[in-house]
Amino acid sequence: MQRRQFLAATGLTLLGGTTGCVGQLSSPLAPTSDEPIAVDETWNQPGGGPGHAYAASGSGPGAAIESRWRFSDGDSHFEPMAIADDTVFAASDSTVVALDASRGTERWRAAVDSNDDWLAVGPDHLFFSDGWIEREPETASVTPYPESSPHQDRFVLLKDLFVYLTDDAVVAGRPGADEARWRRPLDRPHSLCGVADQMIVVATETGLAGLSLSDGSQQWLREDLWSEVSFVDVAGADERVYATTWTRDATVFALDAASGETAWTYEPPTQVWLTADSNHVVLGGLPDVEPMNRVDVLDAAGDRQWVVPTDSNDTTVHVPVLADGVVYAAHVADCFAYDLASGEKLWSLSPDGLLSSDLYPLGQPLVAGDGLFLEQDGAVYGFGPA
Predict the structure, then answer these.
(1) Does the pTM exceed 0.70?
(2) CB 346 within 8 A of CB 338
(3) H or E segment to which residue 275 belongs
(4) CB contact set of 364 (below 8 Å; sequence gap of 6+)
(5) What percent of the chain has pLDDT over 70?
């Protein structure tokens, strides 16, 4: 399920000022293991990393782009993708394939009876919304999660430790373990992200909570940022966490991840996606919401650096991706690249004929190495620098 499917129309009332109050909460629950948490942020997953910030470690195609390959087997409708170790993993409702990221050739495939809402890849396992499999199986039986089945924004992968949300709790576990590493009850959680200093930040209907990654203990809580909402988008980058509610009078909040204190706020024209790295926050519009057929870029202090229209009648259906000084923004049937420093448009895929059709919507773009990867109408495309 894509994040836009959670969207619902709600009102928003801001409670308190920009600093608000921060509470220190509750004693920790005992973890099931004293094993330290190994954090490897290079593993690709929904959201482009543990922070769900869509800031890629690769360089991407950059200022000029060309088509490298297209993959389709004629039967499967591949949609969710993840990338690791120069391999593109793509899934349908019955099959998962591994493709060489440089050439698009098939390395292996497996029959998998799984929900194809999203896909993540760890060092030894592939993760789906309803469970996981080993990375190179011939046939695969999906092992379910300890509790429930998480949606894309309710899942964080740190190597083979996964953290996800149920309807009333945050759960951490490992593949092969019979029990969860830890479980933290939480009222109406919506989304989460991983940030620096071994912290998981969880958004709820009424605020944000900072939890320790090692045992789930609650470090801080903010319930003065908004009244009850239907969904909250969060992203983490370095020692900051960014959050915004999906309402027409939305506000973007930048908080210190360790303390929960507000650093700054910003009011966009309407609902937005969040992309972030250590120096920038990139905002892209949600579908069917005007006037966000544009991209906004803020600096680390929350000051707007530039805003550009997208030259498209379509709003940004997916989260913009930030990589090596370039913003990649996908729309219904096109993908644009902008220079991060100036806002100059570098290229657009559709006018150059690099996509076979503009009749089908694009999937979420992914960047790894010098490549850009897109899904359209069940086929997977690989692009590189011209």
Answers:
(1) yes
(2) yes
(3) strand 272-276
(4) 2, 81, 318, 319, 330, 375
(5) 76
